[in-house]
Amino acid sequence: MKKILGFLLTNPITYSIGAIINYVFYGVVFGVSMVPSAYLVYFVSQKIDLNNILGILLLCLTIGVSIYLFFIVALFVFGIVERILVIGFKPGRYKTSSFTFIRWLTYSGLHILLLNTVLPFMAGSVFSRIFYRILGAKIGKNVFINTKGLHDAYLLEIGDNVVIGGETNISCHIFEGNELILGKIKIGNNTLIGTDCYIMPDVTIGSNCSIGLYSYVRKKRVIEDKSMIMAIPGIPAKKVAELIRD
Questions:
Q1: Residue 127, exposed/middle/buried by CB under 10 A (0-12, 13-18, 19+)?
Q2: Residue 11: phi, psi to the nearest 5?
Q3: How many Å apart are CA 200 and CA 17, to the nearest integer?
Q4: Contact by Cβ (8 Å): 140, 189
Q5: Euclidean distance between the first and final Cα of the chain, in Å?
Q6: Which domains does the chain have, with CATH numbers?
Q7: Window from 9-13, 64-68, 141-145, 207-211 with minimum mean pLDDT
Q8: How do residues 108-130 score in pLDDT, each as one tens digit?
Q9: What are phi and psi of 32, to 5 degrees?
Q10: In sequence order, which residues have a C-beta less than 8 Å from that of residue 220 and are 6 or more positions away?
Q11: For residue 96, what are the contacts with CB-CB under 8 A and spacing of at least 6?
Q12: Whole-prediction pTM
């Protein structure tokens, strides 16, 4: 089976066919998410007179509302479909020739589509938190997520009163060699994660911690309670050399 899967992934013809099938699948999911918005615009357009400025204004307002209606519906539709795709996924190492990796590729492609079309406009909203919960993330009370960068969130656990800054990436997957690595990430209560941080799999961050902006937390790290993590600030090279000597 591994040899067959390896051949399907490396052969240009079978890989292209698989990519096309995935694109059709993504298009279907995207299209289903658009149905309520499309119907709203159609319904209003049938009820108004487009020969006067008031009718045109009403149609434009309807289109504006339908855009955010699409965003909300898409979070639910994509969340349910993505959740189905990752059923049975567990932390571990998976060869790129494994069936799990092929499923993960399909899931990842669908999530990237959402990440680049909907999530940037819904970060920080209650609907984005609902989306991550549908996907399987464990999220506590009073959590503020001001980023679209929660990857493989079905392996993520966030405690109460946590704040995650904008453009931060919390990734429960990495690639090493020829393997996909999936690992859990746990963030304790009352912890602040600043802007533009990057957190790798198999990381545990305790309660009441502060992870400063631009910080990088490597895999398999355990950050104890009440810790403060800071990125290296911009200082002259001469000063860096002095610090190293000391």
A1: middle
A2: -75, 125
A3: 32
A4: yes
A5: 56
A6: 2-229 (2.160.10)
A7: 9-13
A8: 999 999 999 999 999 999 999 99
A9: -60, -40
A10: 183, 202, 203
A11: 6, 9, 178, 179, 180
A12: 0.89
